[in-house]
Structure to design on (113 residues):
């Protein structure tokens, strides 16, 4: 009987040990994700500071198409219709300015630390 409990405890410890890193990883992914909305011809927030590895998702909430186009062409979306999304994961520190190629006066930037 005692032997069975020992095995059971060993199994539980193993399962917890296996699950813990996975749940930590999941949490990490969750916090490293930011949304920028495109609304009323504005990127909101217009300036964003994130850590390396953060995935930024732009969502177009306007009735007109917009794009997300980086100044140095590092990233860029096609024309986003209403509720369309575009995501880019920033892997290197730096300041990344972008604009909408349909309305070049629409600008924003992402600072990656
Ligand atoms: Cu636009």
């Amino acid at each position: 009987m005692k032997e069975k409990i020992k095995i059971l405890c060993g199994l539980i410890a193993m399962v917890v040990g296996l699950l813990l890193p996975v749940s930590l990883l999941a949490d990490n992914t969750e916090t490293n994700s930011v949304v920028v909305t495109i609304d009323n011809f504005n990127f909101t927030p217009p300036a964003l500071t994130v850590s390396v590895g953060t995935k930024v998702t732009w969502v177009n909430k306007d009735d007109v198409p917009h794009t997300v186009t980086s100044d140095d062409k590092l990233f860029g979306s096609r024309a986003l219709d209403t509720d369309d999304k575009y995501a880019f994961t920033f892997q290197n520190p730096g300041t990344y300015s972008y604009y909408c190629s349909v309305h070049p006066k629409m600008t924003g930037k992402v600072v990656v630390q």
About this structure: The radius of gyration is 21 Å. The chain has two domains: 1-31, 33-112. The longest strand covers residues 33-39. The pocket of copper (II) ion is lined by residues 66, 100, 102-103, 106 (CB under 6 Å).
